[in-house]
Amino acid sequence: MTSASLEKSPNVDDWLTVSSDNLITIRTGKVDIGQRISTSLAIIAAEELDIDYDRIHVERTQTGVAPDEGVTAGSNSMEQSATAIRAASATARHHMLLLAAKALEVDVNTLEVSDGLITSRDINRSITYSDLMEGKEFGIAVDTNAKIKVPSEQSVVGTKVVPKGLNEIVTGNFQYVHDMTMDGMMHARVVRPPHYHARLKSLDENKIKKLQLEGVKIIINGSFIAVAHEDEYRAIKARDRMAAAVTWNLADGLLVNDLYEALLSNPRVSHQLVDGVPDDEPIPKLGNPPDEATKTISARYEKPYIMHASVAPSAAFALAEASKIKIWCHSQGVYILRNSAAEALGMKPEDLVITHVPGPGCYGHNGADDVAFDAALVARALPEIPVLLKWTREDEHAWEPYGSAMVMELRGSLNRQGDVIEWSHDTYSDTHSMRPFPGPNGLGPGRLIGSRYMDPSVPPTPPQPTGGSHNGKFRNQDPLYTFPNRRIVKHLVKDLPLRCSSLRALGGYANIFALESFMDELSLEANMDAVDFRLMHLSDIRAKNVIEAAAEAFGWPGNNSKGVGCGLAFGQYKNIKTYAAVAIEVEVTDNAEIKLRRAVIAADAGHVIDPSGLIVQLEGGVIQAASWTLYEQVLYDRGGITSRDWDSYPILRFGNVPSIKTILMERPGKPFLGAGEATTGPTAAAIANAVYRATGLRLRRLPLTPEAVKLAALS
Amino acid sequence: MTTFTLLVNGTNHSFETDPATPLIFILRNQLNYTGPKLGCGLETCGACAVLVDGEAELSCTRAASEFEGKQIITIEGLSLNGNLSAVQQAFMDEGAAQCGYCTPGIIIAVTGLISKTSKPSDGEINEALEKHLCRCGSHANVIKAVKRLTAGGPNID
After folding, report:
1. Domain total in chain B
2. Are residues B59 and B103 in the same domain?
3. Are B92 and B146 in the same domain?
4. Does residue B66 share a domain with residue B123?
5. A204: which residues sit within 8 A by CB, 6+ positions away?
6. Which of A439, A451, A507, B52 could form a disulfide with A458 if both were Cys (CB 3.0 to 4.6 A apart)?
7. Could you say which of A166, A392, A393 has the minimum Cβ distance to residue B97?
8. Using the beta-carbon criterion (under 8 Å), do A619 and B47 form an inter-chain contact?
9. Which residue in the set A167, A646, A653 is minimally distant from B40, CB to CB?
10. CATH, domain range A4-171
11. Of B79, B114, B135, which closes a domain?
12. How many Cβ pairs within 8 Å bridge chains A and B?
């Protein structure tokens, strides 16, 4: 089995190194963003190397050193990096056994390994991995056919381990980029314009001089303005004073037309999908329902802009020395960032060295890349001075790239037996893909927010329709159900007001919200139980199994009376990754608040490497998606983003966390499937379906706030 | 500039700094206690919580000089002897963190809570944690950790 990761980094030495005391360092292009990928990768390496898990150290990802595995995204890390590290570890073990046989002068088949100690059954002699390999290179390619353990031979995989970094986290010793220090460093803050389209008009030179006399460094590069000082609090104060020294040309401000109307009527580029993949055929018209249809219903679902809203504002550390700039940041893709940032700065990529240092959970493309570029602009203006640039809470809320607003229009027809005999789904959305990929046509720099403001400025890169399978806005748009006569169309809508990029599950969250809400609406038309209706339209046994397991553990259909209701929804992420069914019981209070009482998740992620980590990801997905679903929308007016803090952009708090029970399907030997995004869409639909059973109200516009419930009750 | 003294994790430290500087910057940048986190600077997320005379309080806006004469404990101060506190151990056992940025503040809040009431009700737990935001969704495991600590075992439903 080969992979793109191994094609780029084919050698064992690319992936692992043995040092003293049988310590193994593994390198990966996939970064840990709180999703515990380093724990899973360490388990895989420990298993194949027959070495204690605690001896595995996962090295920070650095350009020029770590394998280039693109971006840590799309629930791909297990399939890509873990597959590569498993093969590299198995190859390394085999190689070291051959070396040991030679050193011990025994037959390789007599050797056994325990925690890196290689012993021959025939003679009373042994040798360690370190004895053989310390300070040496393997000098061999990863053998993709190297024998890997079968499930019955595994002793680490599937067990509970202490997650990498957890001890440091609970003792306050985990080092985030925000905690970095260097001698002579300065703290920097950016002075932002009121909104995207504002540019520098004039500066109050007297105020600036006063700041400079107080030791504040002022960086002005076109309309990119920042301040820096040795003392962090004084840097914060200086930012406020500098903001008062700047007058902005506000231009026309943000567009404030009706958002959902704009999604349906603005210029757009449309493609139909066949098996989840867009093609260039003409868009099929939505014609009359089939003759045998006894019922046909339509519904429109709407999702606002939402934000990643990491608890830590993004931050980066940078140092410009001679012709090089070093950056430490929490980007999910250090190589693509390096290439686009270098292009924007007019540098050679190898002169920019980017190292991943942990930051907050990011859940997609948040401000991590942007702040790294901001820090580079500041560092370049302050050569030889180490700079720690932190975005403020307001920066993060108002300037991160959001998850696009979306409209989903669905139509379905049933025959007399309740079979879905026609299915149509149009999705209208801005882009979900504006990570700083270099190119095409030199467009990489325009994907970094700072480049719009520096001189010379780079215009924002216009979104392009994406291809591939289940990408961006059309992720999970094509249902896994066995519907004939599908018409699936995606529309990339232009001229929308806010900056967008990838947010956990991309379009999959809203598409599954829509299609799984619509499944419940159709099941009612068919007079069928919502679970039976889904099972009837599935042929994939693993899909059926998670739905059945969730329904059984939940006690489906559960309690549905007097303001209490239960809902269930299903999705297989991208139709190829983790299968997840989520059942939720809600209570709708007299004040129209939706209280989450309990939830059950059933998930099939293939062969489970780290069950605790998997459960945390699945449950975290439910909680985050519940927050999006109940509370969240980015608000704005002509003057800019108005969701600028936690009061104006509330998220879910401890008081509304359901009890959660998670069932993992046992699939030993099956390929492991990415799971970090799998529960988000099903959670939204399960809540909406539960609210319907509690109140009789079908809510199709997110978020499901008390105002939305009251409005639905009135109409 | 004035001189003031703070008692942090059992040790007195004197500072010659703008006394209006919020406590968190003194802890992080002068004492290198980086466990308290800057999340908002507005007292709205809980990441900066420290114990002040045993109560969980936020450190991101109030002037450091206001804390003179009080006993300040940061997350690092809970395990100064190298042993995890019972609360920290419960968070380890339940894996009650993901990215971990909010975790020190939450552990401080739970420590403050159980020092007052060893068997908090669900309502008291929610109240103590209400101002603490977690974006990764580690809430379910945090609640399990608190229950493990206060009920002598994990919360099994």
Report:
1. 2
2. no
3. yes
4. no
5. A244, A245, A246, A247
6. A451
7. A166
8. no
9. A646
10. 3.30.365.10
11. B79
12. 168
pLDDT in tens, B57-115: 999 999 999 999 999 999 999 998 889 999 999 999 999 999 999 999 999 999 999 99
* Shortest Cα distance, chain B CAs vs residue A179, angstroms: 6
Return the HEC string of A221-262: ECCEEEEEECCHHHHHHHHHHHHCCEEEECCCCCCCCCHHHH
Instruction: Determine the distance in angstroms separating the CA of A377 from the nearest CA of chain B, rounded to an integer.
Output: 23
Chain B, nearest residue to A677 by Cα: B136
Instruction: Show which of residues 638-667 on chain A sit within 8 Å of chain B, judged by CB atoms.
Output: 645-647, 651-655, 657, 659-661
Strands A387-390, A186-191: pairing is parallel
Does A659 contact B45 at a Cβ distance shorter than 8 Å?
Answer: no
Q: Measuring CA to CA, which residue among B30, B40, B90, B112 is closest to residue B64?
A: B30
B50 and B105 share one domain = no
Asked if the Cβ–Cβ distance from A171 to B76 is below 8 Å, we say: yes
Whole-number Cα distances in Å, A669 to A48, A227, A610: 15, 55, 14
Give this complex's ipTM: 0.97
Q: Which residues of B touch A181 (CB under 8 A)?
A: 32
User: A611-631 and A680-695 helices cross at what angle (nearest 10)?
Assistant: 50
Residue B146 CA, chain-centre distance (Å), reads 14
At the top level of CATH, the class of A262-304+403-431+466-714 is alpha beta
* Residue B109, in any domain of the structure: yes
Q: Is residue B36 part of a domain?
A: yes
Tens digit of pLDDT for each residue in A660-714? 999 999 999 999 999 999 999 999 999 999 999 999 999 999 999 999 999 999 9
CB atoms closer than 10 angstroms to residue A295: 14
Strand partners, B7: B12, B71
| Chain B residue numbers touching A231 (CB-CB < 8 A) | 21, 25, 29
- Could you tell me if B63 lies within 8 Å of chain A, comparing CB atoms? no
Q: How far is CA A343 from CA A379, A444, B61, in A?
A: 16, 8, 40
Is B68 inside any structural domain? yes
Q: Which CATH architecture has domain A182-251+308-399?
A: 2-Layer Sandwich (3.30)
User: Which distant-in-sequence residues (6+ apart) come within 8 Å of A404 by Cβ?
Assistant: A305, A429, A430, A431, A432, A473, A496, A500, A507
- B54: CATH: 3.10.20.30
Q: Are residues B61 and B94 in the same domain?
A: no
- Picking from B22, B76, B139, the nearest residue to A654 by CB comes out as B139
Task: Identify the domain containing residue B138 by its residue range.
Answer: 86-151
Q: Do B97 and B147 share a domain, yes or no? A: yes
Residue B38 with chain A: CB contacts under 8 Å? 178, 312-313, 390
Which residues partner with A596 through β-bridges? A586
* Cross-chain residue pair A233–B22, CB shorter than 8 Å: yes
**Which pLDDT score is estimated for A440?**
83
Greatest Cα pair distance, chain A, in angstroms, is 85
Q: Which pair of structure tokens corresponds to residue A688?
A: 């909406």
- Inter-chain touch B132–A654, beta carbons under 8 Å: yes
Residues paired with A326 in a beta bridge:
A319, A353
Q: Is there a contact between A176 and B101 if contact means CB atoms under 8 Å apart?
A: yes
Strands (DSSP E) contained in A363-481 are: 387-390, 406-414, 420-429
Residue A78: band (very low, low, confident or very high) from pLDDT cuts 50, 70, 90: confident
> Residue A363 to residues A34, A434, A648: CA-CA distances in angstroms?
9, 14, 20
Tell me, yes or no, whether B102 and B53 share the same domain: no
